[in-house]
Amino acid sequence: MNENEGREKNVMRSMYKKILYLFFIVVGLTFVVFHYVY
Question: Mind telling me which residue stretches traverse the membrane in this protein (predicted)?
Answer without folding.
Answer: 20-37
